[in-house]
Structure formats: structure tokens, C-alpha cells
Amino acid sequence: VDPTIWKACAGTSVQIPTVDSRVYYFPQGHAEQSSSPPLLSPLVSSQPFILCRILAVRFLANTETDEVFAKIRLVPIDRSRDLHVLQPSGTKPNCVGDEDDDDEEVVSFAKILTPSDANNGGGFSVPRFCADSIFPPLNYAAEPPVQTLSIRDVHGMVWEFRHIYRGTPRRHLLTTGWSKFVNHKKLIAGDSVVFMRNRRTGELFVGVRRAVRSNADCGGRGD
Amino acid sequence: VDPTIWKACAGTSVQIPTVDSRVYYFPQGHAEQSSSPPLLSPLVSSQPFILCRILAVRFLANTETDEVFAKIRLVPIDRSRDLHVLQPSGTKPNCVGDEDDDDEEVVSFAKILTPSDANNGGGFSVPRFCADSIFPPLNYAAEPPVQTLSIRDVHGMVWEFRHIYRGTPRRHLLTTGWSKFVNHKKLIAGDSVVFMRNRRTGELFVGVRRAVRSNADCGGRGD
DNA sequence: TTGTCGGCCGATCGCCGACAA
DNA sequence: TTGTCGGCGATCGGCCGACAA
């Protein structure tokens, strides 16, 4: 996944350290968060934290859920032992050297899906700011102003959406194509979509953030 | 899976040897047919065939495809080494001692699905013989004669079908419920369904046989 | 006897403006 | 500005008899 798109999908609360920077690795925290706890030697897991150098960072996305995550390869600074570490998105090692490398070549906008966006007649209310700053300008002379957007997801798959400006009062909507997207990505109210535009090329991208579900939200809906 | 139901699903061309009978095990054939070739010691795989005794037979069904298969545990007769062997349905070891244990407590009928059965308006043409010999008799005094059949698949899941006798000329059809079954089992024209009735209890069962697809049939339809 | 077709009816999908928060 | 609602037209699923193989 392109790192800039990846960062826009992950959001600004996620900071990934750069290669060669130094971080503290917390074995305990890694074991608690990982679905498949890492195999660590007792020597490693007995330490509360270990100063490491970052060898490599890979920006990835889950094939099924579209959720972004990074694989960060660490090497202890006082030892030569090599570790593979899976770093869940939304968390980060405590960075010692933190470099902000924001070139802002991608502008993005995120919206939490309302029940109407996720459930009802297959439409999406586009906030005015998103339509103005992300989508190509409509021809407002036309009646109604309408265009078809081709938007790439993190896998490179292209989705088409009918973008129309209508209703009284006027508002921006995504209609045809939206419902298929929601169903395919299994989005529900509370999840977020992220629309992005590359400032240079004008290319559009769409990402997905799943809502953090508390146990209470998980009832019913077994399939 | 109940062995009698299993056998009806597999069809008469499949013969599974009984426990304690002796068979020849062909390592080469096993390796060629298995999707995950067995790990065999060179001593075993270098032999063309090995006389074995059958320790245990388990009748199973694939959770996704409903296809039946058996796990047969063998032990070489001249050695004490123990092997786990997956026996694909539709093939069999060459039986030395073959016992036919058919008590015929289940009567079955198989039909290859026509395009109309699989694709069109959600109906299934029930061959007269199947309706007469497998399904409970309809009340032909009613207009139209109709009943709801509750039929169990190999996993024990119950499916409901509306069985009606109508049209000119009259014929047996499965209507409501059939389409859901076809979609859930991902059946296409050329596949078969097997209807079974337990003579003693009258209980109904339904099984599925996938058509053997040549490479030419596999084009398109990627999902 | 049974495979396929066109007709037709009802359910669902999804686009729409109205309205209010 | 935008979330939700009811209306309604188009589409689709699926039940039907006709007809022919």
C-alpha cells in the first residue's frame, strides 16, 4: 500500500516511526494486543522494555477488512538477535526519535457513517466540505449537477459512485454504486469512510475504518 | 455423518472397506490425488503398494461443499508403523476382503440439475419416480396437492421445501425454499442432488454431488 | 413425463424531495 | 447544512400454466 494513502486511512492518531529511528519495544504490550501472541525467548519477555532500532517498515492492508496495519522489523540495540514484530494499527512503539515527514501531497476527509448512510435506501450524504475539497467540482449550470466518480481502494480496486447535488435544500449525495460498496465492505453505522485526493494527479482514493466495537455492540447478527 | 446417509450421498460407485479388512495402500496414488500430499518416509513411498489392515473408518463431509469423504486409518501388516490416510471420495483402495453390508434401510434418488433447476425462477422439477418413492404421498384430493417437506442435509441442517403437484400436464415441483438451497450450496447445472428416505423412520435427507468440472468449464465467474 | 419459456404479481431496492434538527 | 422519513417507480425473484421434446 502506498505510504501516503496508508497514513490517510490510519488517521493522524497513528504515528509510525521511520527506519533507523530508535524505539522501545514492550513485549508485554505486544503479547496482549496481538491475536497470535509472538514467540519470544524468556530472556526477551522477562524484560519490561527493550531499546531497538527499526530495520524496516511495511505498510499493509487486511485483504478482507481493508484495515491498515504495519509490519515493523526491529533489532535490539545491545544485542544482535533479530525479531519479527507485528504492529497493530492504532498503536505505536514509544518513539525515541520522532520525525514528521508530512509532505501533504494527499488531502483527505473522514466521515462516520450515520444509520441513513449505512442502512437506508443506498445513499450517502456527502458533507459539503468533503465535496468541495476532495471531489472534482461539479458543473453547477447543469440540472441537476451530477458526475460519476471512479475511486480506488487500498487494494487498487476501482469503485464507481454517482455524485449528485440535489434536493431542497440542495446537498451532495452519493447514490448509485454506494450501496454495493457498503455491502462489499460490510460497513455499518459507526464505521468511517475516508475520501482522499492526490493533489498532484487528482486521483481519488477511498479507505475504511472500522468502529471499535464494545462487547455490547456484538450481540445478534450471527451468520 | 451417519454411514448409511454417507453411502447414499457418495453413490454406489464408491465402496469403503470395513474395519479389520485388508487392503493394498498405494503411496503413489495417494500422493497424486491428495491436495496436500502425505508425508511419508522414503521406506514407504519407495514401495509400489503395501498390504495394510484397516484400523478405523470415519465418514465425514466437507463443511463448505457438502462433499463426502472418508478418513481411513491403516496399519501395515508386516510392520507396526502407524499411518493417517485421507481417502478422497470416489476412489478406494483395492480391497482384498470386501464385505457388502447393505441393509437398504435408506432408499435414495439422485438427479442431475438442469439449467432450469439451477438458474431459472427458483423451481425444481421433481421426477415422478422420486416423488412417488421418496417423498411422503400428497393428498391428491386437494386442489392443488401440496405439502411442506423438512429435509436434513449431511450437517443435520434442516431445509424446508414446498412440494406441489400442478401445471398442465401435472408434474411434481419444489418451489418455495428451493432457490435458497441452491444459492447456499452454490449448485449449478450439472451438479446433482440426492434425496433419501429412511424406510423405518420416514425421515428425509438431502445430499449434494458436485459435477466433475473439466478445465474448460472453469472459465469466468471469479469472485 | 419433464425441460424451457413468457406472463405476471408481489417484494425489494434505491432515487427522490420534504422537513426538521 | 445534513439526518431521517415516506413516496414511488424500476427492477428482480419467483410462482404459474403453456407447450413441445
TrEMBL record, chains A, B:
<keyword id="KW-0804">Transcription</keyword>
<feature type="domain" description="TF-B3">
    <location>
        <begin position="109"/>
        <end position="212"/>
    </location>
</feature>
<protein>
    <submittedName>
        <fullName>Putative auxin response factor 17-like</fullName>
    </submittedName>
</protein>
<comment type="similarity">
    <text>Belongs to the ARF family.</text>
</comment>
<keyword id="KW-0539">Nucleus</keyword>
<dbReference type="GO" id="GO:0006355">
    <property type="term" value="P:regulation of DNA-templated transcription"/>
</dbReference>
<dbReference type="GO" id="GO:0003677">
    <property type="term" value="F:DNA binding"/>
</dbReference>
<dbReference type="GO" id="GO:0005634">
    <property type="term" value="C:nucleus"/>
</dbReference>
<keyword id="KW-0238">DNA-binding</keyword>
<dbReference type="GO" id="GO:0009734">
    <property type="term" value="P:auxin-activated signaling pathway"/>
</dbReference>
<keyword id="KW-0927">Auxin signaling pathway</keyword>
<keyword id="KW-0805">Transcription regulation</keyword>
